[in-house]
């Protein structure tokens, strides 16, 4: 089954403030604000790749060719324009759909039949959302199953959902790792040194990012 994941837009609230980075780097307020904002976003993306969780609140669209019926795990990257090289992992436990962590809400759930009609599934009646699991899951409602109608040949099932931490919810150890990484990037503008030709993430940063990592099998 083909899958596509689309991120609606870059999040508006990052785990760190500009002032946090200025304090870490001992910079005067307003020094290179745009550049520091880019470094915050880049550090958050690296932290998400290592930790497996969404460290900022975002809305996604998961597109499936059909409703799941078998158990498997898969990972794939974002569709442009919000592309990055992180693999986004999803699992399907029979009919149940595992999304991204931490799951906040399922915002819409539709499917398109072979005649082109778009139908909306209703939370609580057609499906239930379990945000207590990590990652959160969608289940068919008790006593029901996914629709058995003949579906549109491609991208028939579309699930829009919101996942991610608010800034205050991001663990302090991950924020500290972001600050360390931003400091490394800011002080060493080149991706290599005279001794180390390939830049690697420092152990202290990777260790911080992997704190309470979300493991998927």
Query: If strands are numbered along the chain, what order do they take across the biggest sheet?
Result: 1-2-10-6-7
By secondary-structure content and strand pairing, the structural class works out as alpha+beta
Helix content: 10-25%
Spans of at least 5 consecutive residues with low confidence? 194-198
What Rg is obtained from the alpha carbons, in whole angstroms? Answer: 20 Å
* Run of helices and strands: EHHEEEEEEEEEHH
- What share of residues are in beta strands? 15-25%
DSSP strand count: 10
Count of alpha and pi helical runs: 4
Mean pLDDT: 88
Distance between the termini: 19 Å
Count of the domains: 1
Query: Which of globular, elongated, flat, extended, rod-shaped describes the shape?
Result: elongated
The main β sheet shows up as: 5 strands, antiparallel
Detailed description of the structure:
With 217 residues, the chain is an alpha+beta fold. It has one domain (1-217). The chain is 23% helix and 25% strand. The strands form two sheets. Strands 1-2-10-6-7 form a five-stranded antiparallel sheet, with no helix packed on it. Strand 6 (103-112) and strand 7 form a beta hairpin. The chain is elongated.
